[in-house]
């Protein structure tokens, strides 16, 4: 018999159908003459209830093995459930235990564990309701992203992870070294030389695929990247990771308005898609994690984002009737508390702030006529702060060269990037969405470490 996924059985299984399932035991309840187990295979939040009657061969022996965490295969007949909470259940006719889980040592038991505790058992936490829901929603977000761009004719381009350029110019890079460990004598007490460059040239883990995406946009018009990026910033916050995923569309023949319109339509699309494909998981977040999750999704889908310039934002922040920890004044970057005040308290919806001072933004952003500000845009979300950062790019060779030099970089290191302005240059724009921040925003999860399967932070890179 072909085994079926539990989500599909719960949705469309009918009484008297013969089915087989495979999964992990979540709970066991014993009664006189029979027992119930709840089985989960990761396909849905809900478990399938399995009824095991004492006439099953080796009933007593099998029952002893059916502890929380054990891996099982069950075949049997679906029957209408008399119990509350489920439409249908499975009456076992055959049951096989693949791997047992010793109840004395298995760390996940039928109770609520704190997220802090679950972070210490990252290899097992995906078997809980919360992480099951998070990673299904994360998957749905990825699908929605590809669907959005593919439907619009964008090309998904794969940009390198090892690179020689610091796209953001922030100097927060992990360097890459090539080690030939097999030729390092292990017997001697000799320290490994970690200072060798990547085949003789300094290289780093990429902080952004943007510069390479610009290369591709100058041939394919509309492209996007979706891949891992790395930042060696030592920030221990609930919104920063050392390794995170970023989605970066890049559009030729596009200005900042087109960029903002695309970003807004993009976020709306992802929220709609996730609400329609993961309704139970979203309901779960709303009930158990943050009771504003569904209202936030509704807000994103149905309201126009607020758009204002950095200069206007500074004026509003200076007038704010709360005391900020960090100072507010023209020329200083917005801190997360300022971003959250604007989105959460003042406008109560996402806010797009444009035209930041040139000196606090990256070299590639298009200089405005005032020569003080650049065509940048950040999308600030309630609870999260900056979720998207983007800009219209500087397409004028002379201005770009000037900006490269002003930021202490060498034009010759970026010769290929400058070439894009020498040959067939056009106005173009793009943005980067922090994928984990999106998943946080979508699910209401408080800590970014809990929306990526294997978080990498200064404290956490265990496996
Ligand atoms: O604002 P950032 O640094 O922009 C760029 O990298 C541009 N090259 C994007 C582009 O225009 N193509 O980063 C973009 C987004 C931020 O808005 C934030 O959501 C996320 O990436 N981000 C992080 N997410 C998790 N951990 C970190 N350490 C992050 N740093 C940035
Ligand atoms: Mg940014």
Automatic annotation (TrEMBL):
It is found in: Cytoplasm. Its main location: cytoplasm. CDD domains: AsxRS_core (cd00776), EcAsnRS_like_N (cd04318). It is an enzyme of class 6 (ligase). Its EC number is 6.1.1.22. Belongs to the class-II aminoacyl-tRNA synthetase family. This is Asparagine--tRNA ligase. The gene is asnS.
């Amino acid at each position: 018999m072909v085994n079926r996924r539990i989500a599909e059985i719960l949705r469309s299984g009918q009484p008297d159908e013969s089915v087989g399932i495979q999964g992990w035991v979540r709970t066991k309840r014993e009664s006189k003459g029979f027992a119930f187990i709840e089985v989960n295979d990761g396909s849905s939040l809900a478990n399938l209830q399995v009824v095991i009657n004492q006439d099953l061969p080796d009933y007593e022996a099998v029952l002893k093995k059916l502890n929380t965490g054990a891996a099982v295969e069950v075949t049997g007949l679906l029957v209408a459930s008399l119990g509350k909470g489920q439409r249908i259940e499975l009456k076992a006719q055959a049951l096989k235990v693949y791997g047992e889980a010793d109840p004395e040592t298995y760390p996940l038991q039928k109770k609520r564990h704190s997220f802090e505790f679950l972070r210490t058992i990252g290899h097992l936490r995906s078997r809980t309701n919360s992480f099951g829901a998070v990673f299904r929603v994360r998957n749905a977000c990825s699908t929605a992203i590809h669907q959005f761009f593919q439907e619009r004719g964008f090309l998904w381009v794969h940009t390198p992870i090892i690179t020689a350029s610091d796209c953001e110019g922030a100097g927060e890079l992990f360097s890459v070294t090539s080690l030939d460990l097999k030729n390092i004598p292990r017997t001697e007490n000799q320290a490994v030389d970690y200072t060798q460059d990547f085949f003789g040239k300094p290289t780093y883990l990429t902080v952004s695929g943007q510069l390479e995406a610009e290369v591709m946009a100058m041939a394919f018009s509309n492209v996007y990247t979706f891949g891992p990026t790395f930042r060696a910033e030592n920030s221990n916050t609930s919104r920063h990771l050392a390794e995170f995923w970023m989605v970066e569309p890049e559009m030729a023949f596009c200005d900042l308005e087109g960029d903002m319109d695309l970003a807004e339509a993009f976020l709306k699309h992802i929220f709609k898609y996730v609400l329609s494909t993961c309704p139970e998981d979203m309901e779960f977040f709303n009930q158990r994690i943050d009771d504003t999750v569904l209202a936030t999704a509704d807000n994103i889908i149905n309201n126009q984002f607020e758009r204002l310039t950095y200069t206007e934002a500074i004026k509003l922040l200076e007038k704010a009737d709360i005391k900020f920890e960090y100072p507010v004044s023209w020329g200083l970057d917005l801190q997360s508390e300022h971003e959250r005040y604007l989105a959460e308290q003042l406008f109560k919806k996402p806010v797009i702030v444009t035209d930041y001072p040139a000196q606090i933004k990256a070299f590639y952003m298009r200089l405005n006529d005032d020569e003080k500000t650049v065509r940048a845009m950040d999308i600030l979300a309630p609870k999260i702060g900056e979720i998207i950062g983007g800009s219209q790019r500087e397409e004028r060779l002379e201005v770009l060269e000037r900006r490269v030099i002003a930021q202490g970089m060498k034009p010759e290191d970026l010769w290929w990037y400058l070439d894009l302005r020498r040959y067939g240059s056009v106005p173009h724009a793009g943005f980067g969405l922090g994928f984990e921040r999106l998943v946080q925003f979508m699910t209401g999860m408080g800590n970014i470490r809990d929306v990526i399967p294997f978080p990498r932070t200064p404290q956490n890179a265990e496996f």
